[in-house]
Automatic annotation (TrEMBL):
Transmembrane annotation, as ranges: none
Identification of the protein by name: Alkylated DNA repair protein AlkB
InterPro entries cross-referenced by the UniProt entry: AlkB-like (IPR027450), AlkB-like_sf (IPR037151), ALKBH3 (IPR032854), Oxoglu/Fe-dep_dioxygenase_dom (IPR005123)
Keyword Methyltransferase listed: no
Organism: Sandaracinus amylolyticus
UniProt-recorded Gene Ontology molecular function terms: catalytic activity, acting on DNA; demethylase activity; dioxygenase activity; hydrolase activity; metal ion binding; oxidoreductase activity, acting on paired donors, with incorporation or reduction of molecular oxygen
Cofactor: Fe(2+)
One BP annotation, GO: DNA alkylation repair
Residue span(s) of domain Fe2OG dioxygenase: 105-206
Alphabetically ordered keywords of this record: Dioxygenase, DNA damage, DNA repair, Iron, Magnesium, Metal-binding, Oxidoreductase
Pfam family, any one: 2OG-FeII_Oxy_2
Keyword Lipoprotein attributed: no
Length: 210
């Protein structure tokens, strides 16, 4: 069984402890040729804005997304269920690089495309019960950023304490342990003129029984 502790030990030089079993690692420029990879992903992934249910309202996501993964890695959030599209060549290249760095072969990835500063991701945690290795107390998310630099914020759910991480081209952020249970994260809108950014959040999803 994959252990989040083994990943933290492997990436020890990049670890920030957030307390209560929550931790993140940030490795700068971990992915090579990020420009070419970003272009190939935008070309080959079925990116689109999704309609999500937030309470009684249906809203269109202010970003384009695509869900890819191994067969059966169905992901459900905000009232929607997503069947995985197959892996593409650029996603496999990055997945393999992330595996070489973390020791984990992630089975799925959410691709997010932020076309400019108006696109964003609201406060949330990746705490769906199907996420592994063991939601809610041990969830591994490995996130690769390509393109424009954007602010990534973490906010403690109870204390409101925040951390700001500027994420840049080729950076690898890993969130592990209880980070999803204790903290929320977001990518806020910005009025600054920023170019397009693609983030890839690699995940472990328990397959649904057939
Ligand atoms: O774009 C990012 O860095 C954040 C993505 C994210 O929060 C998610 O996919 O759940």
């Amino acid at each position: 069984m994959i252990s989040s502790d083994a990943v933290r030990a492997r990436l020890a030089e990049h670890v920030t402890e957030l307390g209560e079993g929550a931790w993140i690692t940030l490795a700068r420029e971990a992915v090579e040729e990020p420009d070419a990879l970003a272009a190939r992903i935008v070309e080959s992934s079925p990116l689109g804005a999704e309609t999500l249910r937030i309470g009684a309202r249906e809203v269109l996501t202010p970003r384009r997304t695509a869900w890819h993964g191994d067969p059966g890695r169905v992901y459900a959030y905000s009232g929607r269920t997503f069947e995985p599209a197959p892996w593409t060549a650029p996603l496999v290249e990055i997945r393999d690089r992330v595996e070489a760095l973390t020791g984990v072969r992630f089975d799925s990835v959410l691709v997010n495309e932020y076309r400019d500063g108006r696109d964003s991701m609201g406060w949330h945690s990746d705490d769906e019960p199907e996420l592994g290795p063991h939601a809610p107390d041990d969830v591994l998310i490995a996130s690769v950023s390509l393109g424009a630099h954007r602010r990534f914020l973490l906010r403690h759910r109870r204390r409101g304490e925040t951390h700001e991480l500027p994420l840049g081209h080729g950076d690898l952020l890993v969130m592990g342990g209880t980070t999803q249970r204790r903290w929320q994260h977001s990518v806020p809108k910005t009025a600054k003129p920023v170019g397009a950014r693609v983030s890839l959040t690699f995940r472990l999803v328990r397959p649904r029984p057939a």
